[in-house]
Amino acid sequence: MMRLINSTHYGFPEKIELDDVVDKELISLMTKTTMDPEDFYLTGYETISFKRTREFALETVISSVIPFDKDILIIANNSDDLHIQKLCNLYGVSNSLVNLPESEDELEAVISAYNQQHIYSHILISCDVNTPECKERIRKLANELSKTSIKLIVHCRRSPMELNEVSELNIAFMVSNGMSSFISSVVIARRSQLVQTEGISRSERLDLYNYWQKTLYRRKPGIKPMAI
To answer: Which of 100, 108, 120, 166 sits at 20 to 30 Å (Cα–Cα) from 226?
Structure first.
């Protein structure tokens, strides 16, 4: 069942198709199990699926998760990082773009300096998450962020990370291509972080919390205890 929401992105009349069922193929890939998609929320993560491009999903996260009094730090890692910064500017999200530190010491110094300013709520990195190089970068970032209150957003340029890695690295939001032919993009969100996004979105059309609430309409009423 698709829920259709009017949209006029960049002046073109169109519709956003929000899938209120989870991407079964993506969940199977991420969990390496035959988990019932209805029970995915038990992992502590939620999926919000769109029949729209991955960029749309990324825009929705950027618009929806950064508090008005906080900034986002973009770790420069790809040619599209300047474009991501333009998306932040488009939606009025304060941001900074820094080059990827070459060593752990440099990374620690960068994060420590920004954390002392108390202005960053999230760090975003965009890469092919299943290459050894990118996995190592994300792991280093996650290790440093574990000492702070800054949360990690991962933009997957290809396939998503496995769920056990997402959980282990305490990734707050992950944007990925969908695996189903009916779903073009998916946001994997840590539930404890997702609930904090209510009322934050800079755009009614790009409200991640609102889309999540719509995905809950068909969820069976008898829910089980959830992971954190």
So the answer is: 120
CA separation (Å) from 199 to 76, 133, 195, 204? 29, 36, 10, 10
Q: Check whether 4 has a pLDDT greater than 70.
A: no
What pLDDT, on a 0 to 100 scale, did the predictor assign at position 92? 93
Spell out the SS3 assignment of 192-213.
Answer: HHHHHHCCCCCCHHHCHHHHHH
Q: How many other CB atoms are found less than 10 A from the CB of residue 179?
A: 17
Q: Which two tokens stand for residue 210?
A: 């609102």
Q: What is the rounded CA–CA span in Å between residue 15 and residue 17?
A: 6
Q: Answer yes or no: are the C-beta atoms of 84 and 127 closer than 8 Å.
A: no
Nearest-CA neighbor of 186 among 63, 53, 74, 91?
53
14: its two tokens = 């169109």
pLDDT tens per residue across span 154-192? 999 877 888 888 889 999 999 998 776 667 888 999 999
Sequence-ordered strand ranges (E) for 60-218: 71-76, 95-99, 120-127, 151-156, 171-177, 185-190
Residue 167 CB coordination number (10 Å): 16
